[in-house]
Amino acid sequence: MSKTNEDANADDQIHYTDHFTAGLELGFGEGFLSPGGQEEVAKIVKGIDFVGMEVLDIGVGLAQPACLLVEEHGAARVTGIDVETPVLKKAAETVKAHGLEDRVPLRLVEPGPLPFADESFDFVFSKDAIIHIPDTEALFNEIHRVLRPGGWVAVGDWYCSNEPFTKEMSAWVELLGLDFAMKPIEISKDQLGAVGFVDVESLDRNAWYTEVCRDLVGQQLRNHVLFF
Q: Where exactly are the structural domains of the chain?
């Protein structure tokens, strides 16, 4: 059966295909689309008491981090949102495997304003997803809006230096059809302060990620695979 133009356009908009996500899981661990696993989730939320919290996970991916926030950190409920149906289908499998369907609801959303009322959440979490959002200032405004007074936001993500991508990095992003919107971390800090967040802190993880990349390259060479 041939595809309609509408179907073809929908396929063009899918970045995280089943094939791509399977490759990422091979490198980063089951249920993860980015590095660090359980330890990195713990690093992002270190020092925060989640007991009884209502959490929003922006860019829930395959939902393993969301499940960890419930199982390991005591969150009452984690609402996971994403913009791609194939990703959410696999996320639902993860949530079901953990038996957390009632505590980790998943929702398909459109890019743009968050579809939640003001002051809906105690905490907003995101792991390596905001890199895909060009207008981070608008997103931070939305995060501030849906947080209750005194709420927290914790984000782990990729940022760039003040230099443009190297030729090799640009070619890799183009090859994968990704839509990275990296910015220097100082821009995000300024934007967070401008929309009303206080006590904004950042942690440079470059040294750690350098080692992660070396390990991944070694893994690929040993197994003669290229999972990207």
A: 5-222
> Which residues make Cβ contacts (< 8 Å) with residue 217, sequence separation at least 6?
none
Q: Measured in whole angstroms, how far is the alpha carbon of residue 105 from the centre of its chain?
A: 16
Q: For the segment 7-61, what is each residue's pLDDT rounded down to a tens digit?
A: 333 444 677 888 888 888 887 889 988 888 899 999 999 999 999 999 999 999 9
User: Considering the entire predicted model, what is its pTM?
Assistant: 0.81
Q: What amino acid is encoded at 10 in this protein?
A: A
The sign of the CA dihedral 108, 110, 115, 121 is positive
What homologous superfamily is domain 5-222 in, according to CATH? Vaccinia Virus protein VP39 (3.40.50.150)
120 close to 54: Cβ distance less than 8 angstroms: yes
Q: Tokens 């990620």 sit at which residue?
A: 209
Backbone angles phi, psi at 19, to 5 degrees: -65, -45
Give, for 12, the enclosing helix (H) or strand (E): helix 5-12
Residue type, 212: V
Q: How far is the C-alpha of 15 from the C-alpha of 49, rounded, in Å?
A: 34
Structure tokens at 28: 């980063």
Q: How many angstroms separate the CA atoms of 37 and 221, rounded?
A: 22
